Amino acid sequence: MSEAEDYSSAAFRHWEDAQLLAGENRVENADQLYGLAAECAIKKALIELPAFSKNRELHQKLQGTH
Length: 66
Fold this sequence. Notes:
Elements lengths: L2 H21 L3 H22 L1 H5 L1 H8 L3
Helix pairs in contact: 1-2
């Protein structure tokens, strides 16, 4: 499984969990998970950009390995 797929799965998982919490009026916790879902979706989009895949330093920073 690629990193982009991992971020995609995480985005959907966090979004679904946030929806459940929001439905139970636990908006403070839902808010955090919506933010994580958005972060994962943005990282997935960045990884798929051609310029990103050519920039190893940027890729390492995103992965937290730099």
